[in-house]
Write a structure and sequence with these properties.
Elements: H1 6-24, E1 30-33, E2 39-42, H2 47-61
Antiparallel strand pairs: 1-2
Length: 75
């Protein structure tokens, strides 16, 4: 797993939250650079994907990795 420095995750989160705000106030589309370095455009119909990306970045800053599955413990 590639670890992204926290300051870079924080900057991406700031950009994603700004993009989400711009969509919510009526802009037709916004462009966001993703954690893997690629850029993508979000439109109002894709706002839930952008919200999920914001949540993912917030979790990364909190030290949680959402990509991992649940841990099952059996006794």
């Amino acid at each position: 797993m590639n670890l992204i420095p926290p300051h870079e995750v924080a900057e991406r989160l700031r950009q994603a939250e700004l993009a989400l705000h711009r969509l919510q106030i009526g802009e037709a589309f916004v462009s966001v650079r993703l954690s893997d370095g690629s850029a993508t455009e979000f439109t109002p119909p894709k706002i839930n994907e952008l919200r999920a990306y914001v949540d993912l970045l917030r979790d990364q800053l909190r030290g949680r990795d959402r990509r991992r599955g649940a841990i099952n413990v059996v006794f």
